[in-house]
Write a structure and sequence with these properties.
With 288 residues, the protein is α/β, with parallel strands linked by helices. It is 32% helix and 23% strand. The structure holds ligand LAXINWYW. The site of the ligand N[C@@H](CCC(=O)N[C@@H](CSC=O)C(=O)NCC(=O)O)C(=O)O has 13 residues, from helix 1. Serine hydrolase involved in the detoxification of formaldehyde.
């Protein structure tokens, strides 16, 4: 069993907000992740688990320090796990040069180019981390869901759509919903996946939802919130493109609720405002 080292622990809403580190086999580097454990009243009790994926520049800390989610995790009795956003400290040439590429910008894909071969956040999030969590924390592996913000919203959507049955539900706040058409996505996919755009489709939420035609009845409603004053969305900015995802989902018969939130930006003020709704969305699937 992989060894976990506790980095920090703080009591919060009756439960504990913790950070752990370990040596990741997928990433070939040390990796940190956060875990919120709700109050435990019964011995051997297990909880559903909700995976949170963060956006560009984030570590495992942004969400736990800025969103205020712990009160809802405590109330709904859900374990919440949040990984870092890329491998770190690999000394790859150029990995520290940009805020939206390299370190802090793993985009939840498994890179196939030689230079970025350690950037395997997709396998880390869908395989290594859930295994670690199931081995070390009181979770029920049959009740898992996933959500995220921006790059992490993209990550949540693709992890859900690529793994039917693994997650009970998905939601996203201001996701990068069509990576192949987003300037962020085009740069990252070219570097991590190479120039063949067919390979990009495997990690593009809009392309993946398009492929769900005929399976709509099996997919629970996907919740997406988008701020109208989001600097990556307003005035025709084409970084997020939630409308492309909604159109493709509609064609495929997949239920999506896109809520346009008047006046909100791309920041954690927006995330913290709507995070309660996202817990309620997932609790309907996880706690019944
Ligand atoms: N250049 C800025 C902005 C970076 C930024 O806005 N990051 C967002 C995610 S964007 C898409 O994935 C974020 O979540 N930031 C963390 C936070 O705590 O606000 C910068 O370098 O900060």
């Amino acid at each position: 069993m992989a060894e976990l080292e506790e980095v920090s622990s703080a009591k919060c809403f009756g439960g504990y907000q913790k950070i752990f580190k370990h040596k990741s086999a997928e990433l070939g580097s040390e990796a940190n992740f956060s875990v919120y454990i709700p109050p435990i009243f019964t011995q051997n009790e297990t909880f559903p688990v909700l995976y949170w994926l963060s956006g560009l520049t984030c570590t495992e800390k942004n969400f736990i320090e800025k969103s205020g989610f712990q009160q809802y995790a405590s109330q709904h009795k859900v374990v919440v796990v949040g990984p870092d956003t890329s491998p770190r400290g690999l000394n790859i040439e150029g990995e520290e040069d940009s805020w939206d590429f390299g370190t802090g910008a793993g985009y939840y894909v498994d890179a196939i180019t030689e230079k970025w071969k350690n950037y395997r956040m997709y396998s880390y999030v869908t395989k290594e981390l859930p295994t670690l969590v199931q081995q070390n924390f009181p979770v029920d592996p049959t009740r898992q869901s996933i959500f995220g913000h921006s790059m992490g919203g993209h990550g949540a959507l693709i992890c859900f759509l690529k793994n039917p049955g693994m997650f009970k539900s998905v939601s996203a706040l201001a996701p990068i919903a069509n990576m192949s058409m987003s300037p962020w996505g085009m740069r990252a996919f070219t570097a991590y996946l190479g120039p063949d755009k067919e390979a990009w489709k495997e990690y593009d939420a809009t392309e993946l939802v398009r492929k769900q035609a005929g399976k709509g009845g099996e997919i629970p409603e996907i919740l997406i919130d988008q701020g109208t004053e989001d600097e990556w969305f307003k005035d025709g900015k084409a970084y997020l493109l939630p409308e492309h995802f909604v159109d493709a989902a509609k064609e495929a018969g997949v239920p999506v609720k896109l809520r346009m939130q008047e006046g909100y930006g791309h920041n954690y003020y927006f995330v913290s405002t709507f995070i309660r709704d996202h817990f309620e969305h997932h609790a309907k699937h996880l706690t019944k």
